[in-house]
Amino acid sequence: MSADGKPDGKPDGGLLRLNRSTLGKLVVVAVAMFGFGYALVPVYRQICEVLGINVLTQKDGLVEAPKNSQVDKSRVITVELDGNAQGPWRFRPTARSVEVHPGELTTVVYEVVNTQPRVVKAQAIPSYAPQSATPHFKKVDCFCFQEQTLKANEARQMPVVFYIDPELPREVKNITLSYTFFEIGGAAGAAVAAN
Q1: CA-to-CA distance for 176 and 81, rounded, in angstroms?
Q2: What is the 8-class DSSP label of residue 11?
Q3: Phi first, then psi: what are they for 23, rounded to 5°?
Q4: pLDDT tens for residues 62-101?
Q5: Which helix (H) or strand (E) holds 15?
Q6: Is 0.85 surpassed by the pTM of this model?
Q7: Is the terminal CB of the chain with fewer CB neighbours within 10 Å at N or C?
């Protein structure tokens, strides 16, 4: 204490010992908590494995490939693929046809090549034959869902993921999937947009 009776800012010996003792206890508690948390992870994994809960991966011998019960293996449908180009490109399917079972997820690929030295925007419109197959042809993913922008001389492979609804009439054994790929705006539209 100073001469006027006020504290001089220096802790006395007893208070200093108490602070050090408290700091030591806090350090021990912090280290013990860290050790407990670190040791808890393998213990938790062992408990979960023994009880069979919260297991993220199974051993290879226990894993079974999922089976799609919606696939009708008793029928085969031939899907013929066709591509028509209305514009400055080449457009065609990479395969002429595929054989699928109703309910089976199938992927086919169409290829387009922009033969122009300019960027073009295009859209594909699908059509189906026979007409009775249209409501049973279910596209999951298709390049026809959005317009395509092709750079100058660009070639692109574009997939179509589909399945045939098992409710397709039994007399339908062939379906033709045809796309017409046409330019949006055309060369005149591109020249106006550039000005």
Answers
A1: 6
A2: P
A3: -60, -45
A4: 545 455 557 888 899 999 999 988 777 899 999 999 999 9
A5: helix 13-51
A6: no
A7: C
